[in-house]
Amino acid sequence: MSAAAAPSAQDSLAMMLRVLKLPTVSRHAEEVALKAEHEGWSFGQYLKHLMALELEERRRGRIERNQRASALPGEKTLGTLDRKRLSASVAKVLPTLCEGGFVERGENVLLFGLPGRGKTHVACAIGHELVRRGRRVLFTATYALVQRLLGAKRELRLEKEFGELDSYDAVILDDIGYVQQSRDEMEVLFTFLAERYERKSVLITSNLVFSEWNRIFKDPMTTAAVIDRLIHHAVILEMTGGSLRAEKAERTAKEARTTTTTGATTTTPATTTTTATAGAQAEAEVGEM
Treating both helix axes as pointing N-terminal to C-terminal, what angle do 220-232 and 183-196 enclose, rounded to 10 degrees? Predict the structure, then answer.
C-alpha cells in the first residue's frame, strides 16, 4: 500500500472509535485535545473528560428512547400541573414520589377520585419524572392493556408479553374503574398484577373506591386478592376538589355568553340563539360528568 493510500492516524482513530461504538468521543476528541493542551490537562484528565461526554450523551439518548416508548401524554408533566389545586397531603408526598424511591422498593401508587380531579395528570407527572431519572415507564389505558394481554393469550405468547412488560420499572394503568371485565379479561389483568407483586411498581387511577371493585373483577375472592396485593406496599392518594373539566366547560360557557352579550349590537338574533345554545350544551355536559 502506498503512503498516499495509507490511512492517517486520525482516520484510524476515528475508525476504531466507531468500531468501539464511541461516537461522542470520536466527535469531540480533537476539540477536547486542543482544550486539554491549552489548559495543561494530564492525559488522565483528557480521557476522563471524553468518557464523561460519552456517558452523558448515552444517558440523554436513553432518556429520549424511554420517553418515546413510555406513551406518556406530553402535556401532562410536573411543569403543567396546577399544584395549588392539590390537597395538602398529595402536595406533600408528590416530590418524594417523583424521586422514584418507591420504584426501587417495588411499591405501588394508587390514585382515587371522581372524574376530572387530576388523577391521570398526577400519575403522568410522576411518570415523566421517573423517565428523567433513567427509569422505564409505560402509560396505558387499562382496557388497552387488557386487550393486549388477551391478544397475546390467544396467540400463545402471554408469558413473552409478561416478560416485555416486566422490563418496565413502572406501569401506569389509567382508569381501571372503566373496565367491565369478562372472566378472560379479569384473569389476564389479575395475572399481570400478581406477576408484578413486590417486584415492580404499578400506578393505578380509579374512579371507584375499593368497595366497588367487585364491578371490575366480578368475583369477591379475586377482588379481595387483587386489593390485598396492591395495598400491601402502596401509597394511596385521594384526589379531591372540583372537576377540572367541569370548570373548564363552565368557563367556556361563560365566555360564550359574554361574547354574545358584548356583540349583541352587531350580532343577528339567529347568531345569538346559536351561541346561547352552545353555552347551554356546555353546561349540560358539565352536569353529565
Answer: 20
Kindly give, in sequence order, each residue whose CB lies less than 8 Å from that of residue 206, ignoring residues fewer than 6 positions away: 110, 111, 112, 119, 175, 176, 177
User: What count of other Cβ atoms lies within 10 Å of the Cβ of residue 287?
Assistant: 8
User: Three cell numbers at 192?
Assistant: 399481570
Q: How far apart are CA 271 and CA 126, in angstroms?
A: 45
- Between CA 160 and CA 156 the distance in angstroms is 9
pLDDT digits (tens, 9 = 90+) for 48-82: 988 988 888 888 999 999 999 999 999 999 999 99
Per the structure block, which three cell numbers stand in for 186?
379479569
Q: What is the pLDDT at residue 1?
A: 46
Cell numbers found for residue 94: 408528590
Cα distance between residue 85 and residue 241, in whole Å: 7
Contact 220, 76 (CB under 8 A): no
- What is the spatial distance between Cα 249 and Cα 68, in angstroms, rounded to a whole number? 31
CATH superfamily of 83-238: P-loop containing nucleotide triphosphate hydrolases (3.40.50.300)
User: How does pLDDT run across 177-219, given as a tens digit for each residue?
Assistant: 877 668 888 899 999 999 999 999 999 999 999 999 988 888 8
- The domain locations on the chain are 9-69, 83-238, 244-288
